[in-house]
Amino acid sequence: MPINPQHHYILVVGGAGFIGSHMVLSLRRAGYIPIVLDNLSKGHRDAVLGAELIVGDMADESLLKQLFSKYSFAAVMHFGALIEVAESVRHPAKYYQNNVAATVTLLDMMIKNNINHIIFSSTAAVYGEPQAEKITESHPLAPINPYGRSKWMVEEIIQDLAKSHSLNFSILRYFNAAGADVQGGLCERHEPESHLIPLVLQAAQGLRDHITIYGNQYPTIDGTCVRDYVHVIDLCQAHLLALNKLLTEKKNSIYNLGTGEGCSVAQVIEAAGYVTGKKIITKQGAPREGDPAILVADATLAKRELQWLPIYSDLNTILLHAWQAMQQQTVPTSASLNLLLF
To answer: Is the peptide bond before 143 cis (omega within 30 degrees of 0)?
Structure first.
């Protein structure tokens, strides 16, 4: 049975980042009241639209105590992780400190303050090298880098705490989030950028002189790596469905979020050229260590249990929305936001 979101406060940790800021909009449109906690080390103040932003860290016990005393949160959504694989290899302690230790502080303070529902932003990186063409939630967990291991550790910690306390969780394992909320005025702004679609579109904009294709001899349709791209709006819709299920059924769950369809690097570049009308120069590079040939989700469980239907996640729509958002390069007005809220 759907809940009435009116007066339900949701703490969005990392709500100034790419997915977190889109989630804030989705929560508002659904009638929830999001409160954002973000240290702005990676997020952007101007990406938090129509919600209170508390600038601070989830490792700050004093701040969390104040927050949990001021608001009666129905749930916490955690998007506050560092996500760069290469950086995690160079600086693993940084990732374990932020992604694991700080999250333990957040979870501990939630339990002490009787906040019993968490939706955790996880990743397909917990699977490591895929043992099947499409990955189900029962696939062995064997992450191959500190980023993936940090997410896996938190998944284990959450499940341990759920056994010993009144903590309920939904763990959502993303594949490749992309796209943008064009009307909301949001787009992907990682610094530095490492995701393929915004990099390709930067090349289309003339901000990069070429795109490097890392390996073209993989056992795929055209020799380049294949990935499962899911539109960020569809991703947020899955979170809303998971939140409703968590608050009504209090049933712990783990879901893959992807489309079940893969697109190769070469296909993404070709489609980006078509969508933008720009010629995109490519160069060949050596394969990167740890890049599996194919990484595609089996999201049957989320579609069945959450009734989730990704409707924007075809490649051309993802690219078009991301391209349109990148062209805007302006902070949206409250008037333009209201067009989508009502």
So the answer is: no
CA distance 298 to 191: 30
Residue with tokens 């955690």: 78
Tally Cβ neighbours within 10 Å of residue 305: 15
- For 25-81, the DSSP string reads HHHHHHT-EEEEEE--SSS-GGG--SSEEEE--TT-HHHHHHHHHH--EEEEEE---
CA-nearest of 164, 247, 232 to 197 is: 232
CA distance to 103, 202, 260, 283, per residue, from 257 (Å): 22, 26, 9, 31
**pLDDT at residue 328, as a whole number:** 80
pLDDT in tens, 79-90: 999 998 889 999
User: Residue 122 carries which DSSP code?
Assistant: E
Q: pTM to 2 decimals?
A: 0.91
Residues taking part in catalysis: 147
CA-CA distance, 36 to 19, in Å (whole number)?
13
CA distance readout (Å), 223 to 81, 213, 232, 288: 32, 10, 27, 14
Q: Is residue 251 part of a domain?
A: yes
| Residue 295: CATH number of its domain | 3.40.50.720
Residue 291: pLDDT band (50, 70, 90) is: confident
* 4 occurs within a structural domain: no
Tell which phi-psi region holds residue 30, choosing left (phi > 0), alpha (psi between -120 and 50) or beta: alpha
The total domain count for the chain is 1
| Domain membership flag for residue 177 | yes
